[in-house]
Amino acid sequence: MQNGRTAFLFVAPALVLYAVFVGLPILQVFAYSFFTWDSGTIRGFGGLENYTRLVADGVFWTALSHNAIWVVLTLAFPLMAGLITASILAERSPRTVRLLSVLYFLPRTIPMVVVGIIWLWIYSPIFGLLNWFLDSVGLGNLGAAWLAEPNTALLSLNIAGAWTFFGFCNIIYLAAIQSIDPSLYEAASLDGATWWQKFRFVTTPLLRSTTLFLGLYAAIEAMRFFDLVYVTTSGGPGYSTEVLTTHIYKTFFLVGDFGYAAALSVVLLAIVLSISGISYRMLRKP
Amino acid sequence: MTKRLRLFQYAVLGFFALYALIPVYLVLLASVRSEADLFSGPLSLPWPIDLSTYKRVWFESGFQGYFINSLIISCSATFLVMLTAPLAGFAFAKLNFRYKELVFGLFLAGLVLPAPSVIVALYGNLNRLDLLDSHLGVILPQAALLLPFSIFMMRTVMEDVPSELIEAATVDGASIFKTYWLIVLPIVRPGLMSLALISFLFSWQEYLLPLVVIQDETLKPLTVGAAALQGRYGVDYAGIAAAGVIAFAPVVLLFLVMQRSFVRGLTAGAVK
Q1: Per the CB < 8 Å rule, is B147 touching A195?
Q2: Which of A18, A35, A207, A250 would you mutate first to test chain B, the one with the most B CBs within 10 A?
Q3: Cα separation of A241 and A159, whole Å?
Q4: Which of A14, A45, A123, B40 could share a disulfide with B84, CB 3.0–4.6 Å?
Q5: For residue B222, which residues of chain A lie inside 8 Å, CB to CB?
Q6: CB atoms A122 and B267 under 8 Å
């Protein structure tokens, strides 16, 4: 029935668009990274110069460590939150499930820029909701300039990021829990298991592959997020919230060093591709 | 289940409901709060309700234009995706051709691509094509960046179409394209709906691409406009709040009305 050429015509429009605006630029980025640049023009062939420079670039390592911390924080908070809400919701009426999962999911539909603006405001030292709340429950001395202090900035941002992610985890976990054989829970109940025991010994182990999927998804997102940081702190104060993407953006647009920005991009690309390579293998054989 | 456990569970569900809602509530309130009412606490109900901020932001701060630009960019990018992704998804799911796995693999790799990596070279290319400072300069790369996800999703959707149906049609003499158009597309309509919504949502949310490509004030979309307003007038709380609401209201409403389609699309491929 199939004529190979006709079939290829089905793919061609997508392939052309993709090749011109994604494929070609990626190849160029590889090429750029081997040249030295001066405010947007090539100065000469640099070989691996940009890559050796990267090794000694403190900001690069700081940024990379922030991406790594972001992965850990995401695994610790929104993923856990999603797992717990989903396990509780699984025993509620369909109406409650639907209402709450939509509610939890709602923040994800808000553009990240606006998310940044909203949380910038919550954390504001003067008019901020958080300090106002701490004040009104008598903990005013805990108040801080959350995003302006190096110690709290990254963690505070992560809570804003988690705001848009836990609802997604909740929905994915819910779907997975609903596909667990109910007789397993019945058997556990007959054996006198408490809710916590069922959560700990039935739900959590059976959701291993879902957790793996969400964890790898979160890791990739943590490597490539940009909007939230750029709109709120632009990587500051100092470099305390700098991540790879903001470092690339600044190197490219503010410094104009295309070669070094390209080298950073290649490294970032290598990282996400290896994470996805690992996930592909791990998710293939459970 | 003990009463204490039940109580604890409701507390957890309630806590996360507040976590999800309070920030949205806060912005909605702030956007209609009059200046005189500014210091009565961030969560108190504003009175009198003051809609003049919206009027000011919409007409004087250029948000009418930003809104229209967002609409143009998102609709066009969605249109391009709808034109190309279902075709390709169908071919990957149901047809055979040389290098099929390789080509699909190339699209798949794009699934994890960090946009800033592409933009380093894309910027110069758009400049050479004379596409900087134009809507098209955002729309085309935007659609291209949406393709990996869209094609992946469309392949999953198309795989569920019974092959016998397609074979029967081609045996009756219909061309593959005609079969696709008249038989396959009507069957996968719910999937197409999801794809259209997701593409629209993602283009609407995009920030980096228009930030880099567009410098002309009159061409900028809402995300760029709202971020600029925040940067310039950090103390105009009501104005920034209203701008934020204008930037998220259309997609949030769309999500609330079409939740099923949205969730099906956003979790496509994840729950398999």
Answers
A1: no
A2: A18
A3: 13
A4: A14
A5: 111
A6: no
Residues 6 or more apart whose Cβ sits within 8 Å of residue A188: A197, A198, A201, A202
How many CB pairs below 8 Å do chains A and B form together?
Answer: 276
Q: Which residue of B has its CA nearest to A179?
A: B271
Give dist(CA A214, CA A208) in Å, integer: 10
pLDDT of res. B259: 87
Write the pLDDT tens digit of every residue in B116-148: 889 989 998 999 999 999 999 999 999 999 999
pLDDT at A137: 84
What residue spans of chain B are helical by DSSP H? 3-31, 52-59, 63-94, 100-109, 115-128, 135-159, 163-171, 176-179, 185-187, 189-205, 208-213, 222-232, 237-257, 259-266
Banded model confidence at residue B272, pLDDT cuts 50, 70, 90: very low
- pLDDT computed for residue A2 by the predictor: 52
The pLDDT tens digits of the residues spanning B85-104 come to: 999 999 999 888 888 899 99
Chain B residues within an 8 Å CB radius of A88 = 9, 12-13
Give the tokens for residue B230: 């925040």
For B258, the token pair is 């079409």
Residue A113, token pair as written in the block: 């820029």
Q: What is the mean pLDDT of chain A?
A: 88
- Residue A193, CA distances (Å) to A184, A202, B200 in order: 11, 10, 47
From B124, B155, B133, select the one nearest B218 (Cα to Cα): B133
Question: DSSP assignment, residue A42?
Answer: E
- CA separation for the pair A2, B37 (Å, rounded): 70
Question: Given an 8 Å threshold on Cβ–Cβ distance, is B26 in contact with A121?
Answer: yes
With cut-offs at 50, 70 and 90, classify the pLDDT of residue B73.
very high
Nearest to B97 among A4, A23, A32 (CB): A4
**Residue A251 confidence (pLDDT) above 80:** yes
Residue in B closest to A276 by C-alpha: B112
**Helix B3-31 vs helix A112-122: angle between axes, to the nearest 10 degrees?**
100
Taking the C-alpha atoms of residue B152 and residue B135, their distance in angstroms, rounded to an integer, is 26
- Give the gap in angstroms from C-alpha B220 to the nearest C-alpha of chain A: 14
| HSE-up (13 A, CA, CB side) for residue A179 | 11
**In this structure, are residues A1 and A227 in contact, taking their beta carbons and an 8 Å threshold?**
no
pTM of the model: 0.91
Question: Per the CB < 8 Å rule, is B120 touching A262?
Answer: yes
